[in-house]
C-alpha cells in the first residue's frame, strides 16, 4: 500500500481530521484509492463509514467531487444513507450531492446491495424516516426505482412503516407504479397486502391505489362484465345473416380447395375432412357465446356452420375441435386461471410490449378451436390488446403460453393454410403428418 494512502487511513482510524487536512495540504490526492480485501475503493469511504462529518469534510475541502465513486460502488451520500448517518447526509446534501443518483451495482449480480437510489438505500437503514425526510426535502424523486424495479414506495410498503409511506405519498410517490410483467406484476398495494399491513392498504387505497388483476379477479371481472344479465350481445354488434352467409360462401371455397388437395395427396385426411363436415347446432353455438360472454366473429360463426358438429377441420397439423370440445377446453383452462394456477406463470415466447395479444398465460376471452396431441391450441382472440384486432388468431402452447398473432382473422388464418398446402409439396405434408 502506498505511504500516502497508509497515512490517510491512519488519520481516519485515529479520528484526526486535522491530520487529514495537513496531508492534503502536502499534496496527497483526496481521490486516493486503497485495496480493501480485493475491493478497490476510495479512501474517503473509510471516513464515510465512521459517519463523521469532521472526517469527510477535509476530502471535500481538498477538492474531491461530492459524488465521487469507483465503478460499482455507491456514492458517499448513498453510503451515508444506508448507514443511517443523518448529520453526514445533511452535510453531503449541503455540499451539493445528487439526491437522485442511481447506483447500478454489479450488472451480473441482481442481488447486489450496492444497486439502488439514494432513497432506496436510505430505506434499508435502522431508522430510515429522518434520512428519507431529509432527502425528500432536498428534492429526492420518490418515483425513481432501483434497477430491479422496486420503488421507494414499494420498499416502504414492504417494511410497514406508515410514516415513511405518508412522507413518500406527500412528496408525490406514484401509488400505481408497478414492477414486473405479466402475471408477475406487483405494486405497493399488493406488497402491503402480502405483508398483512392493513393500515397501509387502507392508506394506499385512499390515495388511489388499485388492485392488480390476478387469475381469480380477472375471471370474476370478465364474467361480471359479460354475464347474460349484462346483455353481452348488446356489447358487440351481432354479425348480420348476410355477412355470415357471405363468409360461409368464401369458406366453402377455401375448404373445397383443401379437400381437393388432400384427395390428391392424402386420401385418409380427405376422408376425415369429409366425415367431419356438419354444422354445429345453433343451440350449441349460443351456449358457447353465453359461456364466453361475447358474440363470435362472422367468419368463425360461418366456420361452425361447416364444422363443429362432431369435430373441426384439421389445420396446420392440429385437430379441429367440436363446439362441445371447445367449451370443455376453454372451461378447464379458465377454471385453472380462476384457481390461481397461472398466477406465477409468464409467457415464454410473447413480448410483454407486443400490444396485440394480452401478456397472460390464459384469458377468459380466448376461444380455442384446434389442438394437437400435446394440448397446444389455436385460438380466437375476443379480448385483444389495443394494437390487436378482435377475432385475430394466435397459437397457445401448454408449456409456453400465448404466442404472437398468426392471422388478423379466422378466415385469413384458413386462407394461409390453403396457400401453404397448394403452394407447398406433398413432401411437406407427409413430413408434417408423419
From TrEMBL:
The keyword Ribosomal protein does not apply. SUPFAM superfamilies: Ankyrin repeat (SSF48403), SMI1/KNR4-like (SSF160631). SMART domains: ANK, SMI1_KNR4. Pfam families: Ank, Ank_2, SMI1_KNR4. Signal peptide: none annotated. Gene3D superfamilies: Ankyrin repeat-containing domain, SMI1/KNR4-like. Keywords: ANK repeat, Repeat. It comes from the Bacteria. ANK repeats lie at residues 72-104, 148-180. Residues 279-416 form the Knr4/Smi1-like domain. This is Knr4/Smi1-like domain-containing protein.
Amino acid at each position: 500500500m502506498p505511504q500516502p494512502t497508509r497515512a490517510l487511513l491512519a488519520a481516519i482510524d485515529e479520528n484526526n481530521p486535522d491530520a487529514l487536512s495537513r496531508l492534503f495540504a502536502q499534496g496527497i490526492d483526496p481521490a486516493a484509492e486503497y485495496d480493501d480485501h480485493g475491493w478497490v475503493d476510495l479512501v474517503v469511504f473509510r471516513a464515510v463509514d465512521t459517519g463523521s462529518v469532521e472526517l469527510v469534510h477535509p476530502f471535500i475541502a481538498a477538492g474531491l467531487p461530492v459524488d465521487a465513486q469507483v465503478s460499482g460502488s455507491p456514492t458517499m451520500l448513498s453510503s451515508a444513507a444506508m448507514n443511517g448517518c443523518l448529520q453526514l447526509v445533511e452535510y453531503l446534501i449541503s455540499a451539493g450531492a445528487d439526491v437522485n443518483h442511481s447506483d447500478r451495482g454489479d450488472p451480473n449480480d441482481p442481488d447486489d446491495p450496492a444497486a439502488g437510489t439514494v432513497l432506496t438505500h436510505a430505506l434499508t437503514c435502522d431508522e430510515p424516516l429522518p434520512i428519507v425526510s431529509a432527502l425528500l426535502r432536498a428534492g429526492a424523486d420518490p418515483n425513481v426505482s432501483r434497477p430491479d424495479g422496486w420503488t421507494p414506495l414499494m420498499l416502504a410498503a414492504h417494511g410497514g412503516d406508515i410514516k415513511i409511506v405518508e412522507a413518500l405519498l406527500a412528496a408525490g410517490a406514484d401509488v400505481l407504479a408497478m414492477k414486473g410483467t405479466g402475471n408477475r406484476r406487483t405494486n405497493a398495494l399488493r406488497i402491503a397486502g402480502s405483508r398483512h399491513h392493513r393500515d397501509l392498504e387502507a392508506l394506499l387505497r385512499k390515495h388511489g391505489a388499485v388492485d392488480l388483476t390476478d387469475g381469480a379477479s380477472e375471471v370474476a371481472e370478465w364474467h361480471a362484465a359479460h354475464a347474460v344479465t349484462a346483455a353481452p350481445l348488446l356489447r358487440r354488434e351481432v354479425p348480420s345473416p348476410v355477412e355470415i352467409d357471405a363468409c360461409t360462401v368464401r369458406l366453402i371455397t377455401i375448404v373445397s380447395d383443401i379437400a381437393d388437395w388432400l384427395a390428391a395427396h392424402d386420401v385418409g385426411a380427405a376422408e376425415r375432412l369429409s366425415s367431419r363436415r356438419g354444422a354445429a347446432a345453433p343451440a350449441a353455438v349460443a351456449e358457447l357465446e353465453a359461456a364466453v360472454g361475447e358474440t363470435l366473429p362472422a367468419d368463425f360463426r360461418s366456420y361452425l356452420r361447416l364444422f363443429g358438429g362432431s369435430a373441426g377441420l384439421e389445420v396446420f397439423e392440429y385437430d379441429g375441435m367440436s363446439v362441445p370440445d371447445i367449451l370443455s377446453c376453454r372451461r378447464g383452462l379458465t377454471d385453472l386461471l380462476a384457481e390461481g394456477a397461472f398466477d406465477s406463470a409468464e409467457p415464454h415466447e410473447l413480448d410483454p410490449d407486443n400490444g396485440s395479444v394480452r401478456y397472460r398465460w390464459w384469458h377468459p376471452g380466448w376461444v380455442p378451436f384446434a389442438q394437437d396431441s400435446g394440448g397446444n391450441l389455436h385460438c380466437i382472440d375476443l379480448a385483444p390488446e389495443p394494437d390487436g384486432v378482435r377475432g385475430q388468431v394466435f397459437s397457445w402452447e401448454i408449456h409456453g403460453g400465448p404466442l404472437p398473432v398468426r392471422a388478423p382473422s379466422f378466415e385469413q388464418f384458413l386462407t394461409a393454410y390453403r396457400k401453404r398446402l397448394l403452394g407447398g409439396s406433398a413432401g411437406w405434408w407427409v413430413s408434417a403428418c408423419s
